[in-house]
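User:
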Amino acid sequence: MRLIRLNPLETIGKVAGKIAPGRLPSFAEAHVIKALEEIGLQENVGRLKLSKDLHLGEGEARTLVKHLKNEGLIEVSKSGISLSAAGKRLLSGLRVLVSEQIDVPSTPLTVGPFNVAVRVKGIKDSVQYGLEQRDAAIMAGAKGATTLIFTKNRLTMPGTGKDVSKSDPSILASLSKLDLNEGDVIIIGSADEKIKAEFGAKTAALELLKSKNKANLKRKSA
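Assistant: Predicted structure:
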């Protein structure tokens, strides 16, 4: 069994990548995260159930399970698929960075009927105008994403600093379930289907974390 890298982003990226010459898998990093979440939640889940939960074909789900197993993140037995100790550590480490998702109602700030929000911990300085998160969400199949920053007990728009808590008080009440702290970033993925809104939010969160890591590496090498 391979040792799990300390950086959960690297491991998730590796699971979603190629393990042999040929075409890239048809699943993305957001599928990897959801797979870990569903396996952890259901404890022992079958491949067919997992493929339905992830909205993947059976062949795609089989490949994803193979990649997860190769990285030592899951255990496969006759009773189903479960997280290994390493998989539980990885999911726990990811939770430090990105919260579990919550559903939020449509508001003037969102762009779709289904809206899913996640919190990215203390990363406000890595956000510019939220356009990168929107583009990442769209690439994942969402209609778009709304990025907000929690600071001084307010929700503000990146770049402008506009306090949206005043214009839409309900949004702060909805997002308070994320246990917000100073400097946290909230990303709301919006889509015509809940699964696409979820993948949009998670993909945007991952891209934001990657941009922070790249900036840190650039500063160290300067």
